[in-house]
Design a protein that fits this description.
Blueprint lengths: L4 H17 L21 E9 L6 E10 L5 E10 L9 H19 L7 E5 L11 H9 L3 E5 L12 H8 L7 E5 L5 E6 L9 E7 L3 H10 L7 H12 L1
Parallel strand pairs: 1-4, 4-5
Antiparallel strand pairs: 1-2, 2-3, 5-8, 6-7, 7-8
Helix pairs in contact: 2-3
Amino acid sequence: MSASPAEDLLQQWESEQARLRQQVLEDDTEDWQRSPDFSGLERVGGVDLSFIKGDDVNACAQLVVLSYPDLQVLYEDSQMVTLTAPYIAGFLAFRETPFLLEALQRLKKNQPTLLPQVVFVDGNGLFHYREFGLACHLGVLSGLPCVGVAKNLLQVQGVNKSEEHQSQIAALQRGGDSFPLIGASGKVLGKALRSSDKSSKPVYVSVGHKISLDTAVRLTHACCRYRVPEPIRQILCGAASH
């Protein structure tokens, strides 16, 4: 019996993820990442794909670039796009990455001096079923440092909303406090971060590409005025007002 088209697609996607996973760099690769105050970092980006309620085919692909450290908007790009790849849990990147990559490429072509030095992705990086979420996918294909910041806990690799997890969240006293998300294998896949004094709900930070987890967490905290890092929050606020 031959595999169904859907099974063929899944196998193709899994092997593509495995191939690209080999290229992820989980270390700091840029000079600014090694500086205590991120000296040399001037532009931080945020990307997201937002859907219209009840429509899972048409979406708005958005990119913003903010100045660092004052987090003022330098550049915005939003385009309505039509998604062609099916939604399959764990393979979100195959639906979304092409459009986010296009936004970065448009910026690189039209205003290269505004290209972000790091991109925050509204989603996960290594904290993923096969350690290759949207932030990793976009990072490897764009060549830019990327950080995954998710608002909700992906229950994966043995990490779940257990009583222990809830008590660890309760123990986060102030903005910048975090605890590791440890998979069943013992590997640290990301960190839960209390991103602001004002918000007791954490965000879930994981490495996308070309950055270490500790630096990703520190940078996320540095870019938060509220719960969600400003490059992503600007998009979410903009989407809400459209």
